[in-house]
Amino acid sequence: MTVSETATETQTETQTETQAAESGSLPAPVEETRAALLEAAESGDYEALRPLIPEQFSYTFGGPVEGGPIAFWQQLEQESGVSPIAVLADLLELPPVLFRGTYVWPFAFALQADELTDYERGLLRDVGGEDLSDDFLPDGGYLGWRTGIEPDGDWVFFIAGD
């Protein structure tokens, strides 16, 4: 008597796609702050951001700048031509990531350069007129412009570099 065996092999492929956050997908306090920041940033008026900046806020890896975050961003814009307020407006339209309890824009903050899909890299190509798609350390960590909001709605940082 001949016995035959049948073997089955299964392969699974997972694809991840980053999509813009849908309304209601963020906690209400986070969405309220995001919407207020977006409205202020889209106005192009740095002074519209002032009431949204808390006392404890990170905006530079150097020491505090005389005049605070707004003075720093305006100085940066004047010296480099980069418009932080335009970057902020565009960042807040991208999908966020929940990283160590903080909602961070853009999603790339939690990724390594080699983990980005072509679609995700495309999302980062024109943020405030800047191409953030290559703003990664040689070993892969993102260090481009990013902003973060705590679950309670506190805006905690808007910063670039490392």
Secondary structure: elements and pairs:
Elements: H1 28-43, H2 68-80, H3 84-91, E1 97-99, E2 102-105, H4 118-123, E3 146-149, E4 155-159
Antiparallel strand pairs: 1-2, 2-3, 3-4
Helix pairs in contact: 1-3
How would you portray this structure in words?
This protein is 27% helix and 10% strand. Strands 1-2-3-4 form a four-stranded antiparallel beta sheet, with helices on one face. α1 runs antiparallel to α3. It has four helices and four strands, in the order αααββαββ. With 162 residues, the protein is an alpha+beta fold. The protein is globular, with a radius of gyration of 20 Å.
Summary, kept brief:
The protein has 162 residues and is of the alpha+beta class. It has helices at 28-43, 68-80, 84-91, 118-123; strands at 97-99, 102-105, 146-149, 155-159. The chain has 4 helices and 4 strands, in the order H-H-H-E-E-H-E-E.
Properties at a glance:
globular, four-stranded antiparallel β-sheet, alpha+beta, 4 strands, 4 helices, 162 residues
